[in-house]
Design a protein that fits this description.
Distance between the termini: 39 Å
Number of helices: 5
Order of helices and strands: EHEEHEHEEHH
Number of strands: 6
Helix content: 25-40%
Radius of gyration: 16 Å
Strand content: 15-25%
Structural class: alpha+beta
Shape: globular
Largest sheet: 6 strands, mixed
Length: 155
Amino acid sequence: SKAKMATPVVEETLSCSSLNEREQELVKASLEIKTKAHCPYSKFHVGAALLTDSDKIFSGCNVENAAYPLSTCAERVAITKAVSEGEKSIKAIAVVTNLKDQFPSPCGGCRQIISEFGYAADCVVIMVKYPGNECLRTTIKQLLPHAFTPDALEK
């Protein structure tokens, strides 16, 4: 007879108030920075805030450009700010938009960038429904299984 394996939690929907204290701070920071988004074309405000391994928080908002491909996602802005300050490992990131009916999932490009700095630690990804009461909590390995990581280049 085969032993039954416990099913790991891959994602959970929960009240944002039930997140741990640092994760709640990320939600708050992402809500605050979202108001600074430069999105005159899409009108789609996005805020992101991340927690580094050294316990620092960095936030970012989306920055659109009239030449659409040059626009930058909020997650990438936050990660770029962290890396420019010497932080190269993230353990959690929160993302929020104005969507009230669905959780804002990072785009494919952002998933790859998050994996660059958070795959080894299996970075927690918190997607927040506006106005910040309900969250979907998962990990980068769930969002981007079998990611192309820096380890692949070392082989």
